[in-house]
Amino acid sequence: MAVTRTFSIIKPDATRRNLTGAVTKMLEEAGLRVVASKRIQMTREQAEGFYAVHKERPFFGELVDFMISGPVVVQVLEGEDAVKRNRDVMGATNPADADEGTIRKAFAESIEANSVHGSDSDENAKIEIEFFFNEDEIVG
């Protein structure tokens, strides 16, 4: 299996509860390495741009409002089959459906405040990484 990269966001519900280290620990224990990380306050424009794929969905406004409600930690993760590995450790979007030992089972407050975002494909990982990071910020 090839070493690849994926993108991750530790969302405002998790940063508000000071869970950045605990989430990162679970990612690392799953075999992912953080090769770039920064804590940011996402602007409305950033959130709307990042989630533009959902613009026509009824939850778009609430999603944007949530993502700008507090700091987030954006990260580039590296590891074997990184997208799949990250999605496996994140767990199901709805924490009620998430497996034991996953981030969302352990930390999510609700389906909306589910603590983490992760890329769903290698193609989207590249797009999402480039949205928040310059190549010189990724050191691994």
Automatic annotation (TrEMBL):
Q: Summarize the protein's role.
A: Major role in the synthesis of nucleoside triphosphates other than ATP. The ATP gamma phosphate is transferred to the NDP beta phosphate via a ping-pong mechanism, using a phosphorylated active-site intermediate.
Entry's EC annotation: 2.7.4.6
GO function term, MF aspect, one: nucleoside diphosphate kinase activity
Q: Which CDD domains match?
A: NDPk_I (cd04413)
Q: What is this protein called?
A: Nucleoside diphosphate kinase
**Any idea where the Nucleoside diphosphate kinase-like domain is?**
3-140
Q: What quaternary arrangement does the UniProt entry report?
A: Homotetramer.
Annotated active site residues, numbered on this chain, are 117 (pros-phosphohistidine intermediate)
**UniProt-annotated binding residues for ATP:** 11, 59, 87, 93, 104, 114
The principal location of this protein is cytoplasm
Q: Which reaction does it catalyse?
A: a 2'-deoxyribonucleoside 5'-diphosphate + ATP = a 2'-deoxyribonucleoside 5'-triphosphate + ADP; a ribonucleoside 5'-diphosphate + ATP = a ribonucleoside 5'-triphosphate + ADP
- Cofactor(s) listed in the protein's UniProt record: Mg(2+)
Q: Which InterPro entries does the UniProt record give?
A: NDK-like_dom, NDK-like_dom_sf, Nucleoside_diP_kinase
The cross-references to PANTHER family, in alphabetical order and at most eight, read:
NUCLEOSIDE DIPHOSPHATE KINASE, NUCLEOSIDE DIPHOSPHATE KINASE DDB_G0292928-RELATED
Q: What Pfam families is this protein classified in?
A: NDK (PF00334)
Give the lineage. Bacteria, Pseudomonadati, Pseudomonadota, Alphaproteobacteria, Sphingomonadales
Keyword terms of this UniProt record: ATP-binding, Cytoplasm, Kinase, Magnesium, Metal-binding, Nucleotide metabolism, Nucleotide-binding, Phosphoprotein, Transferase
- Record family assignment: Belongs to the NDK family.
Q: Where in the cell is it found?
A: Cytoplasm
